[in-house]
Amino acid sequence: MTTTKTRAADVRIEGLALELDEPGVPLGEAQRLVRDVSFTVAAGEMVGLAGESGSGKSLTASAISGLMPVGVRRAEGTITIGGEICPPHKRHPDVAMIFQNPMTSLNPSIRIGDQIAEAVRLRHKGTSRSDARRRAVEILEQVEVSNAPARAKQYPFEFSGGMRQRAMIGIAIARDPAVLVADEPTTALDVTVQRGVMDLIDRLRAELGLAVLLISHDLGVMNERCDRLLVMYSGELVEVGPTGQLLATPAHPYVDGLLRCIPDRAMAAGKLEPLAGQVPPPNRWIPGCRFAERCASATAECEAAPIRFTAFAPEREVRCIHPQAASLGAGRSVR
Q: Hey, which CATH number is domain 11-226, 3.30.365.10, 3.40.50.300, 3.40.50.1220, 3.30.1490.20?
């Protein structure tokens, strides 16, 4: 079996802003969907991106992968992969993406091996069909699909959910990427299969030196796997820091609220504290803190003007003018 060593590369996002692509509306003047997002993912590092649905996680990931949906455009900021600036709406050859539902991402009418072989030939121009098929079998072995030669001839419906996700990972690494964006890669899988898939991503990260951005709702998975954690709310980063520190002593009330919703923590505390309200749509965003209407610590000052993203401890940043309020209930484990 051949394991291709990728080119080590980091990801750097600076001042990213995404907006609706409205006909006749000048760039920078349409409704913002994501704003002021800056972070890095180093080669060999796994960084988690967390937040409720509607926070802008997948939209940010789509900008990195060059797969932004129709009707969305980059208004500001730069995305740099391995020192090369990426133009909007153009896929960088060193970036691969794993989607959350492999059954809708795989072509049901094409054999698994042929789908992986197609990715090989797209990446390595001039590769013969027979060589690409051989490489597809090697990749299936690399992602731990048993009896790979036979499985390569099967269709997606003949694979279990976990095996389909492994096939999707296989298609991703067939591109020999330096950067892997994993958007909820274990959402539809049971707990034991989830662990197997995450073990595989972790192993490939170590073997290939991948820079991995993991998007998930599962803070427990983040705590186990990610070196650093980014938390988004209403299109903005609200807190960033080393995963263990951030989850043990959250500085932003939103992060503390998410942690209080975890069932295991609720059982230990003797009560479940659901986070009231929901993420507001973009047309209801206020000038100040977008979490203010759900925050027990909010003041008039919070709603008056945009809140700056500021450093408050080594390697930690928060978008809050009362960052210590959240830490009063901190210090408990995630699981």
A: 3.40.50.300
